[in-house]
Amino acid sequence: MVTASKAWDVAAAVPDPELPCVTVAELGILREVVMEGDVAVARVSPTYSGCPAVQFIEEAIAEALRDAGFQPRIERVISPPWTTDWISDAGCEKLRAFGIAPPQKASNSKRALFGETVVACPRCGATDTEKLSEFGSTPCKAHYRCKACLEPFDYFKCI
């Protein structure tokens, strides 16, 4: 029997192409999957309007659904816009284990938008870190260095 729950499970397991340690569901990019007749409709939000991976993500979700026997349709949802607050706790832990400092859960605060954020090193946990560049390996991450262990790392910016 074809159900939205099964379609969700299939789509939710798709890894993010830029961060393969987490799935599109753990990042909060996959908003929902509903069945409309025989069609599995996956609603997806890009992390930001210029995200170069959004089309690849949509195609990967459609392919996973097709491979599981679903007729897929992908709908891009931009309102409300995606926020880093939608990253699950499991997703944050997976980012940290991968060596990326997860975002602080304050994307709509003035401190996150205009102030300095204390970023803990994902390797040693020290908070004595410094921002090296506003942009890291992707535009949604900043590049930091830990002053305690001297390791460089990316920080997933609050959006």
Overall description:
This protein is an alpha/beta fold and 159 residues long. It folds into two domains: 4-76, Fe-S cluster assembly (FSCA) (GMP Synthetase, Chain A, domain 3, 2-Layer Sandwich); 89-156, no CATH class. Helix content is 24%, strand content 23%. It has helices spanning 4-12, 54-67, 89-98, 110-114, and strands at residues 30-36, 39-44, 71-76, 100-101, 129-133, 141-146, 152-156. A four-stranded mixed β-sheet has the order 4-7-6-5. A three-stranded mixed β-sheet has the order 1-2-3, with helices on one face. A hairpin with a 7-residue loop joins strand 5 and strand 6 (141-146). It is elongated and about 55 Å long. It starts with a helix and ends with a strand. The relative contact order is 0.15. The mean pLDDT is 91. This is Phenylacetate-CoA oxygenase subunit PaaJ. Residues 13-67 form the MIP18 family-like domain.
